[in-house]
Design a protein that fits this description.
single chain; 183 residues; alpha+beta; 9 strands; 31% helix; elongated
Length: 183
């Protein structure tokens, strides 16, 4: 597969595994997994992906720099970013002391009042790297605000954190008292 084909297949996997499993009549299990064979069979019902192979899907999972997907046994799932109703669960972990969240300037007042909430996703997304938070925030604002989350303190007070991939941390909710707004 060419890099462009890999990118297109990765985007399609994201659509199906994160947001629209019903597109192929798939039902995510309690951990967000579906049978890889069922996913491929569903994809083959559409013209563009009618010749997709298991090896091509495995190649995208293996070569993804962001490690968005994982295959365990005969099942596949998106690691994060779900907007489907079924909750995808992870084992809670102790986070680093500090994490970051990039966001649009227009929502900072709402975050001051309510904290960081999952919004249309299942979890709040946080980064261990300032630059990664800036990249994420820039999707919504050319000059994003980078919030500092005192994750170690939040965890000590009962906030659950998860780590589905090396630079990404997830939380159910981060209340304002654990967020530094830089002002």
């Amino acid at each position: 597969m060419t890099p462009q084909q890999q990118k297109e297949l990765s985007k399609h996997l994201s659509l199906v595994l994160r947001h629209r499993p019903e597109k192929y009549h798939l039902q995510l299990d309690s951990e967000g997994f579906v049978l890889l064979a069922n996913l491929i069979a569903g994809m083959r019902t559409l013209g563009k992906w009618s010749r997709v192979t298991e090896e091509q899907v495995r190649e995208v999972v293996r070569d993804s720099d962001k490690q968005r997907y994982e295959i365990v046994g005969e099942k596949i799932r998106a690691r994060y970013g779900h907007s489907v109703a079924e909750a995808v669960s992870y084992e809670p972990i102790a986070p680093p002391e500090i994490l970051y969240h990039g966001t649009a300037r227009r929502v900072v007042d709402a975050i001051r009042a309510e904290g960081l909430r999952p919004m249309n996703r299942q979890y709040v997304h946080l980064s261990s790297e300032i630059e990664q938070a800036r990249i994420v925030g820039a999707r919504h604002d050319a000059r994003p605000v980078i919030l500092t989350v005192r994750a170690g303190e939040a965890h000590a007070q009962g906030v659950r954190f998860y780590n589905p991939e090396p630079r990404l941390y997830l939380a159910d909710l981060v209340t304002p008292e654990f967020i530094d707004f830089g002002d």
